[in-house]
Amino acid sequence: MKKTIYLAILALITLASCSKENDFIYNEESSDLQKIINVSIFDETSKKEITTEYLKSKWENKILEQDGYDVELEKFEIIQSTDNDTKEIYYFLKSISKNRTIETGAFLIKIGEGQYKMGAKQCSCAGCRTGCRLTITGSNCDCSKCPPGKACTKTETAIVGG
Fold it and tell me: Are 39 and 116 a contacting pair, CB within 8 Å?
């Protein structure tokens, strides 16, 4: 009888520890950033908490100023990646344009319990609709290839100092 009670208590403790929400919902596209995050994310430069509208506006303006593309960012996705050598886990917030020709994003850095900030490293892939997908491997960004005759441009930026 004692063994049965002990096993029941152990099972309840195990279930309770597993029900803790994760910080992010991975590899699921959403038009609402808040639907795929269970934490607060802060902008590295302005220190403001990021909302869907704030991030869309900031990144759309940056793409227009730096690359000359007038795009509408439509979907957000959190990517989790592990460095094969160090086993360090990285989180990347990606956004995809409505016409699927641009994917852009930034690494996230944990700054406290339930709090992250946008990292200094940001990456973009711009080009064709049927390729040029932004992928993350560890802390590296890559773009998949476009079909023959189409170009894909990869851009990486880093904020130094601050």
Answer: yes
Cβ(126)–Cβ(144) below 8 Å: no
Q: Which amino acid is at 68?
A: G
CB atoms within 10 A of CB 157: 13
Residue 159 to residues 88, 91, 120, Cα–Cα distance (Å) = 21, 17, 5
4-16 pLDDT, tens per residue? 444 344 343 333 3
Residues 59-87: tens digit of each pLDDT: 999 999 988 889 999 999 999 999 989 99
Instruction: Give the whole-angstrom CA distance, residue 100 versus residue 152.
Output: 12
- Which amino acid is present at 108? L
**CA distances (Å), 120 to each of 38, 81, 92, 124, 161, in order?**
22, 17, 12, 14, 9
β-pairing, 102-112 with 89-97? Answer: antiparallel
